[in-house]
Amino acid sequence: MKLQAVDDMSDDDLLVQYVVNSYGGSHGFTIEEQAARRTMHQEILDRMGDHNRSETEKFFVDALAEVVRARKKYPPESGNPNLAALTEETGELAKALLEQSPGRIYDEAIQVACVAARIATEGDRTLDKYRKEQGL
């Protein structure tokens, strides 16, 4: 595996590598590759710093942190009704947009992003029977 030098990366590539290195796990990598990834991760953190993050980058980092927190509280194997949760969170975001502060809008948008990420990666086990009946 050849890692691109952090100094040669665009800001967008840097963010992707940050997320991959933070949440991508170590599956399929040799010990040497894992060490190289850890070194790259630290270089990325050094270059990014909180002061260099755009609002969008901050949002996605916050959303990823919420996914981690939510998975601890409601593990995937618990059969969390993710579609129902997404519907609820989307309604709360719509209400916040119409009636509440920008901070509350941000918090609700984080919740929507979190549940959307969980649906993308876990599905919704409460729908397994239905999906099977539909041939999906």
End-to-end distance? 36 Å
The percentage of residues in β strands lies in under 5%
Number of helices: 6
Low-pLDDT runs: none
Decide which structural class fits the backbone. Answer: mainly alpha
The strand count comes to: 0
Largest sheet: none
What is the helical fraction, as a range of percent?
55-70%
Helix and strand pattern: HHHHHH
* 3D shape: flat
Nearest-integer average pLDDT: 79
Number of domains: 2
Describe the structure.
It is a single chain. By secondary structure, this protein is mainly alpha-helical. It folds into two domains: 1-52, no CATH class; 54-136. Helix content is 70%, strand content 0%. The protein is built from six helices and no strands. The longest helix is centred in the last third of the chain and has 21 residues, at 102-122. The mean pLDDT is 79.
Topology of this protein?
Layout: H1 11-23, H2 31-48, H3 55-73, H4 82-99, H5 102-122, H6 128-133
Helix pairs in contact: 1-2, 3-5, 4-5
Q: What are the main properties of this structure?
A:
flat, 6 helices, 2 domains, mainly alpha, 136 residues
Give me a quick take on this structure.
With 136 residues, this protein is an all-alpha fold. It is built from six helices and no strands.
